[in-house]
Amino acid sequence: MLRISFFSAGIIVLLILESVFTPGYSQTTTPSSGNEFMAVYDAAKEQFGTDPLLMNGIYYENPYYNAKGHPFLGDGDFYQGSVVFRNKKYEGVNLKYDIYNQQLIIEQSREDARGSVVIGDVRYEGVSISYDENQQMVIKQKVGEPSIMNLLANEFVSEFSMDGMEFRKISFDDDVPSFYQVLSENSDVSCYYYWQKLRYKSQDDGDRSIFVFTQQKLKSYLYINDELVRYRNNRSFLKLFAGEAKSQIRSYMRSSRIKVNEAESFVIKDLVDYCQRTISKDKM
Fold first, then answer.
1. Are 111 and 73 in contact (CB under 8 A)?
2. What does the DSSP 8-state code read for residue 277?
3. Beta bridge pairs of residue 6
């Protein structure tokens, strides 16, 4: 097995080529020249980049395997979506959102990450890439292994989408930045959802202490007049408007039979967009 370690942009990179496909390297050895070293580096950089990005992070193991319920949005499965990580957008990512801890977890198949590397004059095809808990890049030829899950560093995630929902990390009034679902954003009035779950301790049938997660709940907000305000029903929604705009919005909600605490997200989006148009007309 050939093992090569080096530093790149503060990241320890570890390349492992197993002896099963490197007959000339049955024992641990060292590249015979700097050219071979750079060949491995350049091949890995070309194929995967110097930054591990989505494959970089903490290897995720579910700490709530024996809990009742789960901390995730939806049914707890992975959804295909997108994520903006370190200001770069990645599409077609399998992810799920831990709303209790406000953390994003991605899934990637080792087989999907396979490519090739060159050592000296020999090219090794069908290698796969992963990153371990020490942020070391590991390249192996073996493919078809189970997928891996990584916990993305929150400070580098600015937005993501999943199951038709868009989320963005936002800080209102100097609060701690949190992920909000974005329904509608406009110059005068915008709408956001904040999803949450609660966790408490209980005992299972064997009288062992376990965690229990509540059902997911959302808090609905309008950002209006430079303030984030929660609304719970039609009355508290309309209370945020004034004058002729309020009258027109009330009429629209009645004619459309909208109950904001029951309506689908696309209905709320249309309503808030209507509110924006009404406010804009009032300003003319």
1. no
2. H
3. 13
DSSP state of 54: G
How many angstroms from the chain centroid is the CA of residue 117? 29
Q: Tell me if residue 83 falls in helix, strand or coil.
A: strand
pLDDT at 84 over 50: yes
243 burial type by CB count under 10 A (0-12 exposed, 13-18 middle, 19+ buried)? exposed
Q: What is the DSSP string of 164-205?
A: TEEEEEE-STTPPPEEEEEEE--SSEEEEEEEE--EEEEE-T
Alpha-carbon span 56 to 12, nearest angstrom: 11
Q: What does the pLDDT look like over 20-76, one tens digit per residue?
A: 333 333 333 344 445 655 565 555 555 444 345 555 556 777 788 888 999 999 998
Q: Tokens standing for 238? A: 């309309």
H or E element, residue 234: helix 234-238
Per-residue pLDDT at 140: 53
* Cα–Cα distance, 35 to 238 (Å, whole number): 70
Closest CA relative to residue 129, chosen from 191, 43, 194 = 43
CA distance 275 to 223: 12
Give how far Cα 43 sits from Cα of 28, 122, 135, 137, 139, Å: 21, 12, 19, 13, 11
Dmax over CA atoms of the chain, in Å, equals: 82
Instruction: Answer yes or no: are the C-beta atoms of 107 and 148 closer than 8 Å.
Output: yes
DSSP type of residue 145: P
Residue 85 near residue 53 (C-beta atoms within 8 A): yes
